[in-house]
Amino acid sequence: MSKMLSKVVFIDELIYLIAEMVYRRGGHNLNDNYRKRSLLFNPFVINIVFIVIIIREIISLFITNEYLSQIIGDFSYKYQFKYQFKVIVFITYSTIIITEINNYYNFKNNKIHKTLETEGKQNLMNKKSQKYMKIIDKFIQIIGIYIGFTVSFGFSFYSFSLKYFIIFAIPWNILFCISFIYLTNIYSFFILYFIAFCLRSKLQISIENQRIERLIENKRLINNRNLLIIIRNIIKKFHLISNLNQIWSKYLLINFIFYMLLSGLLYCI
Questions:
Q1: What angle, rounded to 10 degrees, do the helices at 170-217 and 2-24 form?
Q2: Which segments of the chain does DSSP mark as H helices, in order?
Q3: Per the domain annotation, does 212 fall within a domain?
Q4: Rounded to whole angstroms, how far apart are CA atoms 55 and 53?
Q5: pLDDT for position 126
Q6: Which of 129, 140, 176, 244 is most buried per CB count within 10 Å?
């Protein structure tokens, strides 16, 4: 049980750090001790960039002129899969915008807000959890930059002439890379938050279950104060899971609907 307790403490520290990264990558501030985020990751800036990319993809569907396609930085216009690519971008970015709006209303919900605040109380961490968080953060940034850069600049270099590549493609590709970094960060840290919370809840319930099993083995269930404490702990865990389920259930539902729509559209195209 001591090993499980140490794991719970370690995951508690990771949850604090992940919640901080959720805020620093466009989420909401649940703790005044969080480090400041840059203006680049302000939710307003993020949504503006996503909207610009979505509008660009919609406009490009109605443009057949090669010169105009290059002006708006449509690096997929020469490819046979351009419609599939535009559908993927439109649905994925729209999903993120709706998720951000949903997160804002969750933040305004007093019950959820208070529950999340209790998740961010800890501010004293050992170096191990901080080291893991730095590695995770760097890995996510590298993946986001690499994929965004490779897709945009790789396709553009093939589709654009050198002159138009320098004039039009580079600025649009930088914007697309930034948007993909946003996408990678928001998805990754939100999913990590969910996974860490589920893992910690599983460990905490397992610990309480082991304590009950010990009481049964010792035949000390009747009129035992420890049993009441255990039951209260389990009830607290249940309420915590129930409150935060309002976030995860909506998030999963939004993604399920949009990606089912994506699958159907890609099949039809």
A1: 150
A2: 2-24, 43-60, 66-71, 82-108, 110-119, 127-159, 162-164, 170-217, 225-268
A3: no
A4: 6
A5: 67
A6: 176
Query: 39, 75, 82: which is closest to 170 by C-alpha?
Result: 75
Q: What is the pLDDT of residues 143-196, one digit of tens each?
A: 999 999 998 888 888 888 888 888 888 999 999 999 999 999 988 998 888 888
pLDDT in tens, 55-79: 998 998 888 888 888 888 888 888 8
Tokens describing residue 53: 């990319």
Q: Is 77 helix (H, G, I), strand (E, B) or coil?
A: coil
In a domain, 218, yes or no: no
Closest by CA position to 20, among listed 255, 248, 185, 245? 185
What is the count of structural domains for the chain?
Answer: 1
Structure tokens at 89: 């971008």
Domain of 168? 13-193+251-268
As a residue count, the chain comes to 269
238 phi, psi to nearest 5 deg? -60, -45
| pTM for this predicted structure | 0.82
Tell whether 226 is covered by a domain.
no
